[in-house]
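Morning. Coffee machine broken again, so started the prediction first thing and wrote up yesterday's gels while waiting. Chain of 607 residues, entered below exactly as on the submission form.
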Amino acid sequence: MGSGVLAKLGGVITAKTAAVAAAGALVVSGAVGVGVWAVNGGPQLAVVQRSASVSVAARGEQAAIAPCQAHEKALGGGYAITGTGFATSSLFVGDAWLAAAYNPDDAPATLTSYALCINAKPEFRGDVGWSQTAHAFHDRPDKLTGDMGAGATHDLTTDGPFRDASRYPWASPSCPGDFTMLGTEFRAGRTLTGRGVAPVPLDSLTTHSDITGATPGAMVDLNPGTRLSTAGFRLRTSEYIEHQTRIEDPQPPEANFAVTVRPICVRLKDVSVARAKVAVPAGGTASTAVSCPKGKLVVGGGFQFPAENEVTPSVAPTRFFGDGWLYAPADAPTADEPSGRKVTAWHVTGRNRQKAGADYQNTVWIEHSDAETSTGNGYFDTHAHGPDDQVLRALAVPDSQEMVASAVCARIDATPTEPAKAPSPQAVVRPELPHALDPLPGGTGGPSASPSAPTPGASPTTSPTASPGTSPTPGSPNSPGTPTTGGPSRPATPSQGSSPTRQQPQAPTVSIQQPGAGGQLRRGCEESFAGTARTHPGNQPVTDPQYTSWRITGPNGPVTLGAGASGRFLVPLLPDGTYKLVFSATDPAAGLTGSAEVSVKIVGCLR
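Came back before lunch.
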């Protein structure tokens, strides 16, 4: 499998350019169009899609950013994959939308990122952070693990490392107060550190509605990554064998995949959810689009594979890693439309990689048993191993599975905005893609309910204050769906009335302890970084993340990794090779910046 898909993205480009980074980086496309106008010549409230596309190499990863125009606000976004592949991250980056995709097959694919942009400034809930995590590791919800007269099953779901993960395979975020959820951001991560990981697609990324049409919450569900045991295992009795599955260990790397989610919360009026259904044939694809009622805007959307045939019966099988995948390679506003077009529908294309007629992998057999004693060894397979094997449950994969597309429809009470009469080139900050799983205290690297600390958007060689005219970066007060935090203040100017014998300020002394010169960094993985910076005069340590920065110089300019004197940061998706790593620190009192650099090698994270 290829490497992970997360990268820290930094630098600035203008809307007049479209930069395609080297393999494994990203694309940022300039927005087009100048707004929507009514017949009377005034601006009219409208939602348009802005898009950017990039090629995704075979067994590779890629990211693309679609920015809104300067007078627009991003409501959310989506993605589409032409060919093979599936999205692994889909989230805000300021007033732009980033989508990252993984291509597991041998032919290249195309990823398109879509931003839903409105020419208004609706009110976002700014204190909603990344919280729940949806795991790819699934197990039967009715599994018997105690004695209960039927024997006990002990495996890695009861005593092993995936014990907690198997209990919480999905996430259901919601918005507080009177804010409405338009959709869900998600970003790739892993369930357990220290184990191999490979991406898997989502089965569900949808907004729920109750009988009144309101939208109280959402559902995010990953395709299962678990695999049942192929070997026999002893049971006291086979009377309840359908509840006594045993999970294979070690697990394939797909079982270790997870996503962290965050709801998009906006104050809206008259919200409802429109839906459309389509059957996706096994081994094939199907598409559908859903529109909103007249007078309402399409402000979000999603998809879901309900798979009711798998959960309705009391002993219904669950899809596992070996049973094929159902996923949506397109989840976007009207796809294939030129960037800047008005959004009229939410488009979904589903792909079903199951094999029609094959038995589900968790078909249970009893080896060398008889009806009177009901004892023996159980195993999981699609065929008997011996002449006296008894099948206790077998269910074939259906010829098709239903997919539901949803569109969030609403009226927005906001004043339309319009482009400036003489607009300057729009600056799009290539923002920081946050950690998928924040480290727990002590550096264990497990899931955390709190978002990553925001990284300042300013260059470390300048004052840490943000440049005027730039799009807000994640963590800024104007960034939708991110916690409200104050930006760093401008460093103080040295007093003009100080003693003439006072030592003149100098740039901090900076050094890098980890990684060492020539050290290896694994692309798409979290690595440890450590450095020191001390002021002159005063010899005081500079540790505040507001005044420190880690960057790698890639083929398209500097790429920011993170901030702070030390921490675990995600390595950018850059090709194998040698790069310059720079740690910079600014004296908060003098405003002077010092830096240190070493050469490091970037290699693949997953093999």
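The chain has a mean pLDDT of 75. Going to sketch it on the whiteboard this afternoon.
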